[in-house]
Structures are given as structure tokens and as C-alpha cells.
Write a structure and sequence with these properties.
Layout (H helix, E strand, L loop, with lengths): L9 H16 L4 E7 L4 E6 L24 E8 L5 E10 L5 E10 L1 H14 L9 H4 L3 H15 L9 H13 L8 H8 L4 H14 L1
Antiparallel strand pairs: 1-2, 1-5, 3-4, 4-5
Length: 211
């Protein structure tokens, strides 16, 4: 939405498409407003969620800008519907480096806050109790899981990027830890590391021969 002004308006020419592009990227959650500091009015609005109108008072005439200040925020404010908006304001300058406008990016964060509250409800540890000893006193799978991820962190690796060399080294580390004493551990390790069971047995034979 563009205010009817002279077509050579520098703010609209230079930043109107930028405002539209930002709005498209954030799929309806973001509004971008361009203020003209010379006329103290709103001259461009992309995805109007604040119910402002073109030509409205920008209310920026009393803002004292630092000469070197270009980005203000992010900061939060309340929208007309009572929902929170997170905003960042960017100072726009002309070819002489004079402050002529302000591009304000306003994001509706209410949906994200609701999602966070829901996740906090499910993930909070308030209802958790310590692992019952009678169920987990011999949880070899959990011990293997803990060892594997500790080893990955120590070696700055992740499961999806393991090479054959890495997997063999991890199998050897598990062997040294005594992880293969149980009946089903070879199958479990093969599944976790996305390897054939025969490959795990092959590595174990080679490791035992070299010990």
C-alpha cells in the first residue's frame, strides 16, 4: 500500500521493494512501515497488521537520533489487539548521509509465545521423578546411548556425519567400555549406528585380535 506522492519519492523507490520482500519471507507475521522523517508521516505499509493508515503521523519528531545510529532495537510494544509485537527500526539516509526516513519491522510474536508456553508445559520437569531403580538398574541401552553421545561430543561429531572410520573407532571405544557384554548389544549398536550387524561383528573380531 503506497501513499499517493510524487513518483520519485526516494524512500519508496529505494525501500518499498525491500519492505515487500521482508513481508513475503515471514508469511504474514511481519509488517514493515516506512516513515518519512521530513514530513513526519507514514508513506508505505507492507502487510498492515497495526491498522495504521498512509499519511498518519509518524510520531518520530521528538526522537533524538545519534548521528551514527542506524539500527534501534529489537524492542517490544503492544498492538491494537493487545498482542505483543517485537520491532526493529532502521534509520534510512540519503546520498548525503542525512536521516530522511525510518523503516520499522514489526513482528507479531503472539503465536510464537503461545507455542513456547505449550512446549514449556510439556517439557517442564515439574512432573518428572527420578528413574525408578527397579526398572533402570540395568538399562544397558541408556548406558550405550549416553556413552555414544558423550563420545560424539568429545570428538565434535554428529551421528549423521560419521564415516566408516569414525564408526569403527566408536565400536572400539564401546568395546573398551565393556558395552558388548550383553546378548543383544551388537544388534542394538548396529541399528543405532546404521550399520550391518555383520560389520559390527567384523570390527569386534579385528579389535579382539589386536588387543
Amino acid at each position: 500500500m503506497i501513499k499517493n506522492q510524487d513518483s520519485d519519492n526516494i524512500l519508496i523507490q529505494r525501500y518499498g521493494n525491500l519492505a515487500d520482500g521482508i513481508v513475503l519471507l515471514f508469511s504474514g507475521y511481519v509488517e514493515v512501515v516506512i516513515h518519512d522523517l521530513r514530513t513526519q508521516t507514514v508513506v508505505y505499509i507492507a502487510n498492515n497488521i497495526s491498522k495504521r493508515n498512509l499519511g498518519d503521523d509518524a510520531a518520530l519528531d521528538e526522537v533524538e537520533f545519534d548521528e551514527n545510529e542506524n539500527v534501534i532495537g529489537p524492542y517490544e510494544k503492544l498492538n491494537w489487539d493487545g498482542l505483543n509485537i517485537r520491532s526493529t527500526s532502521i534509520v534510512l539516509r540519503d546520498d548525503d548521509n542525512q536521516q530522511i526516513g525510518m523503516l520499522c519491522i514489526n513482528m507479531n510474536i503472539a503465536s510464537f509465545e503461545a507455542a513456547k508456553a505449550l512446549l514449556d508445559t510439556f517439557l517442564s520437569g515439574a512432573q518428572l521423578v527420578p528413574q525408578p531403580d527397579k526398572l533402570f538398574h540395568d538399562d544397558w541401552q541408556e548406558r550405550i546411548n549416553s556413552f555414544i553421545h558423550h563420545w560424539l561430543n568429545e570428538n565434535r561429531l554428529n551421528m549423521n556425519s560419521l564415516s566408516h572410520k569414525h564408526k569403527r573407532a566408536l565400536v572400539e571405544a564401546l568395546y573398551d567400555e565393556g558395552a558388548f557384554e550383553g546378548k543383544s548389544t551388537q544388534n542394538y549398536v548396529a541399528s543405532v549406528l546404521n550399520m550391518g550387524r555383520a560389520t559390527v561383528f567384523k570390527y569386534l573380531r579385528e579389535i579382539k585380535q589386536n588387543k
